[in-house]
Amino acid sequence: MFDPATLTLYMAAALALNLTPGPDMLFCFANGVSRGPRAGLAAALGIGGGAAVHTLAAALGLAGLFAASPTAFEILRWGGAAYLLWLAVKALRAAAGGVGGGLGAAGPLPSRSAGRIFLDGMVTNVLNPKVALFFIAFLPQFVDPAHSAVLQILVLGTLGNISGTTINAVVGMSSGGVGRILSRRPIVARLLNGFTGIVFLGLAARLVLADGRPK
Fold first, then answer.
1. pTM for this structure?
2. Residue 64: what pLDDT?
3. 135-144 in b/e burial notation, b at 16+ Cβ within 10 A?
4. How far is CA 182 from CA 32, 87, 177, in A?
5. How far apart are CA 20 and CA 14, in angstroms?
6. Mostly located where (predicted)?
7. Which comes out higher in pLDDT, residue 205 or 196?
8. Lowest mean pLDDT among 4-13, 65-74, 105-114
9. Please, are residues 1 and 177 in contact by the beta-carbon 8 Å criterion?
10. At what angle do helices 70-95 and 129-138 cross, to 10 degrees?
11. Are 121 and 43 in contact (CB under 8 A)?
């Protein structure tokens, strides 16, 4: 189904893209450094779950709706930004000591299960319409028209997703190990929470301000 040269080129391109720091990697890093290795891994798996949804949507042609409909694009964009803003507010409140008592408290982020962090990652990825547009622009370049486009997009998307999830998991878990050591000091814990809030706030602003809407 795939020419070896084409598949090799695709995997090299996917690896290069996945190694380039971006919003997904930053999301995993921020969760890992503020909540530990398990949270970093859960965030990476959640991002991977969102990418799987985008792969399926691209294969079925659903992602084309966002390329053709400015309204659908805007709904997704603002929904994703609102969710990221909510996460940012929670982290910044923790940094200010708003969780667990008083401005003098160290303000650790409230306990959050791996399942909830997975959901955070998945929702933020699914609600980013630029990811959908990327999938429908990138994957078809490696599709052989002589074979099933749906099956090829599913396979290509899955292979790229495995690569991306692995890299994000390494980043999230590595940052989690560092964060766990640093967070033993209350002032450092507060700074890490503030960093996480600023990251989420920046991701929300990036989603709102960057011009990536369908033309």
1. 0.73
2. 62
3. bbebbeebbe
4. 12, 22, 9
5. 10
6. membrane
7. 205
8. 105-114
9. no
10. 130
11. yes
H helices of the chain, where? 4-19, 23-35, 37-60, 64-68, 70-95, 114-126, 129-138, 149-182, 186-209
55, two tokens: 């792969």
Write out the two tokens for 38.
């398990």
Alpha-carbon gap, residue 132 to 57, rounded angstroms = 8
Structure tokens at 134: 């990327």
pLDDT tens figures, 45-89 = 999 999 999 999 888 886 566 556 677 667 767 887 888 888 888
Cα–Cα distance measured from residue 99 to residue 149, given in angstroms and rounded to the nearest whole number:
50
Amino acid identity, position 48: G
| pLDDT tens-digit readout, 19-44 | 888 889 989 999 998 888 999 999 99
Domain regions of the chain by residue span: 25-209
